[in-house]
Amino acid sequence: MMKPILERLATFQKSGSRPNWIFSSVVSLDIHTVKYKPLKVTSHIPLSKALKGKRAIISLQNTDVQCFKWSITRALNPKDTNPQRIDNEL
Hints:
The chain is mostly helical. It has three helices and no strands.
Protein backbone atom coordinates (compact mmCIF):
# COMPACT_ATOMS: atom_id res chain seq x y z
CA MET A 1 0.00 0.00 0.00
CA MET A 2 2.94 2.31 0.54
CA LYS A 3 3.83 2.56 -3.16
CA PRO A 4 0.35 3.67 -4.39
CA ILE A 5 0.13 6.24 -1.57
CA LEU A 6 3.51 7.71 -2.45
CA GLU A 7 2.58 7.80 -6.15
CA ARG A 8 -0.65 9.67 -5.41
CA LEU A 9 1.21 12.06 -3.15
CA ALA A 10 3.73 12.84 -5.92
CA THR A 11 0.90 13.35 -8.42
CA PHE A 12 -0.88 15.70 -6.00
CA GLN A 13 2.25 17.78 -5.42
CA LYS A 14 2.91 18.08 -9.17
CA SER A 15 -0.63 19.07 -10.15
CA GLY A 16 -2.46 19.90 -6.93
CA SER A 17 -5.40 22.29 -6.73
CA ARG A 18 -3.13 25.05 -5.40
CA PRO A 19 0.22 25.78 -7.11
CA ASN A 20 2.33 26.33 -3.97
CA TRP A 21 1.06 23.49 -1.77
CA ILE A 22 3.70 21.19 -0.32
CA PHE A 23 3.03 18.01 1.63
CA SER A 24 4.79 18.14 4.99
CA SER A 25 3.36 15.37 7.21
CA VAL A 26 0.56 12.92 7.89
CA VAL A 27 -1.53 14.08 10.84
CA SER A 28 -3.53 10.88 11.19
CA LEU A 29 -4.16 7.69 9.26
CA ASP A 30 -6.97 5.23 9.94
CA ILE A 31 -6.86 1.77 8.40
CA HIS A 32 -9.92 -0.45 8.73
CA THR A 33 -9.62 -4.12 7.82
CA VAL A 34 -11.98 -7.07 7.91
CA LYS A 35 -11.31 -10.76 7.64
CA TYR A 36 -12.40 -12.08 4.25
CA LYS A 37 -14.71 -15.07 4.59
CA PRO A 38 -15.83 -16.32 1.16
CA LEU A 39 -19.14 -18.10 0.94
CA LYS A 40 -18.99 -21.87 0.94
CA VAL A 41 -21.33 -24.28 -0.76
CA THR A 42 -23.50 -26.00 1.81
CA SER A 43 -26.51 -28.22 1.58
CA HIS A 44 -29.01 -26.42 3.85
CA ILE A 45 -29.10 -23.05 5.56
CA PRO A 46 -31.91 -22.64 8.10
CA LEU A 47 -33.95 -19.43 7.87
CA SER A 48 -33.99 -16.85 10.63
CA LYS A 49 -37.15 -16.62 12.77
CA ALA A 50 -38.15 -13.35 11.11
CA LEU A 51 -38.04 -14.85 7.60
CA LYS A 52 -39.56 -18.15 8.68
CA GLY A 53 -42.48 -16.31 10.31
CA LYS A 54 -43.40 -14.56 7.05
CA ARG A 55 -43.99 -17.93 5.38
CA ALA A 56 -42.86 -16.43 2.05
CA ILE A 57 -39.56 -18.29 1.62
CA ILE A 58 -39.05 -22.05 1.40
CA SER A 59 -35.67 -23.35 2.59
CA LEU A 60 -35.39 -26.76 0.98
CA GLN A 61 -33.81 -29.41 3.20
CA ASN A 62 -31.38 -31.13 0.88
CA THR A 63 -28.24 -33.14 1.59
CA ASP A 64 -26.43 -32.42 -1.68
CA VAL A 65 -25.06 -29.18 -3.14
CA GLN A 66 -27.75 -28.79 -5.82
CA CYS A 67 -29.79 -26.11 -4.04
CA PHE A 68 -30.50 -24.11 -7.19
CA LYS A 69 -31.84 -27.16 -9.05
CA TRP A 70 -34.14 -28.07 -6.15
CA SER A 71 -35.39 -24.48 -5.84
CA ILE A 72 -36.34 -24.30 -9.51
CA THR A 73 -37.93 -27.75 -9.35
CA ARG A 74 -40.04 -26.74 -6.30
CA ALA A 75 -41.09 -23.48 -8.01
CA LEU A 76 -42.29 -25.44 -11.04
CA ASN A 77 -43.94 -28.13 -8.88
CA PRO A 78 -45.46 -26.37 -5.83
CA LYS A 79 -46.58 -28.45 -2.87
CA ASP A 80 -49.03 -27.52 -0.09
CA THR A 81 -47.83 -29.80 2.68
CA ASN A 82 -44.16 -29.76 3.77
CA PRO A 83 -42.85 -27.76 0.80
CA GLN A 84 -39.34 -27.76 2.32
CA ARG A 85 -38.98 -31.52 1.80
CA ILE A 86 -37.46 -32.89 -1.39
CA ASP A 87 -39.41 -35.76 -2.92
CA ASN A 88 -37.91 -38.49 -5.08
CA GLU A 89 -40.52 -37.90 -7.78
CA LEU A 90 -39.20 -34.37 -8.46
